[in-house]
Amino acid sequence: MPANILIVLIPLAVMTVLFLASFLTEPRRLVNGWLFNLWLLSFLATAAFLILNSQNRLLIAVSATLFIIAVLLILAIFALHLLWLAWNALIVWRRESHSLGNMLTLLIALGLLLLEIGASFGRQFLPAPLYAALAVFFTLTIGYVLVSLYNFLTVLVLYNLRWVRHNKDYLIVLGAGLIDGHRVSPLLAARINAGIRFYQRQKKLGKPAKLLFSGGKGSDEQLAESVAMQRFAIAQGVPEADTLIEDRSTTTLENMRFCAAIIRAAGGGKAAFFTNNYHLFRAGLYAKQAGLNANGVGAATSFYFLPNAVIREYLALVVLHKRRHLIAFALILLLSISVLGIQWVTQ
């Protein structure tokens, strides 16, 4: 093998080993997203080098065309960001409740619109040093948020694609709010059905498992979510003897802690948990925090609902790791203040 080709293959091999070692050892950590993206950059760089080195004009032309199309699609997404955010907000407004959590895309669209208006006209009304400092602050802040959001999306997709073996003793289905305080919502039904499908496949393989429904009674609910979930599963043909309930939890972390206690009290065993795909990674982090050695299976969610749901998950993850984000924002603020000072002195 020529030395120049070997040189470009070594970084790719190193990143492949690092990513697989990290992801296969513990898929419930954010660093897997960074490692995968570094692997992807290494793969694309290696592919580009090999294609150009091949001197095959047809292969080079096709690859260049595909690359240009990909770049144009990315640019189109950024150029039309206000349009698709507003479109999604309109659909959610029509189909879902008008809660703050369901209006995130609308609020982001309005915020970005105000920023763009401010960037266009602010120079006329603000002193040049202050305008420059604000430009640095908002540019770096938005860039930081986009990079960290992209990493979260990467690790969320990777975790959803991870295959879970059918060798579990307990299948934990995480609760969600009930309609009218007593009926299972479509969102919750998707979680239950995902658990039932896994339960049925595993039973056919000769490995019966217990469906453990987890969810307490909210202040606006007539019964515990876990009880409603158990009734829903029994109505789908699941024997009551194959079900368990955990009816005290009010948060995902409590879901995991209380279910872990039930499993330990019963003598232990292997577990998997079931929730909606957008919630899967954060639920995995809470399972890890609760000392529960379990990974998850994500239930499908309506596409129009995903943008708001994913943004909520990202914000929850920011709060979960608030220290590192506060440090990053503090550094950005210090840099912006430095720009303000330098601009003011040299003006």
From TrEMBL:
PANTHER family assigned to the protein according to its UniProt record, in alphabetical order: INNER MEMBRANE PROTEIN, PROBABLE PERMEASE, MEMBRANE PROTEIN
Gene3D superfamilies: HUPs
UniProt keyword Membrane, yes or no: yes
Record bears the keyword Transmembrane: yes
DUF218 domain residues: 169-315
InterPro entries: Cell_Envelope_Assoc, DUF218, Rossmann-like_a/b/a_fold
Protein name in the entry: ElyC/SanA/YdcF family protein
Lineage of source species: Bacteria, Bacillati, Bacillota, Bacilli, Lactobacillales
Transmembrane segments: 6-24, 31-52, 58-87, 99-119, 131-159, 326-345
Keywords, in A-Z order: Membrane, Transmembrane, Transmembrane helix
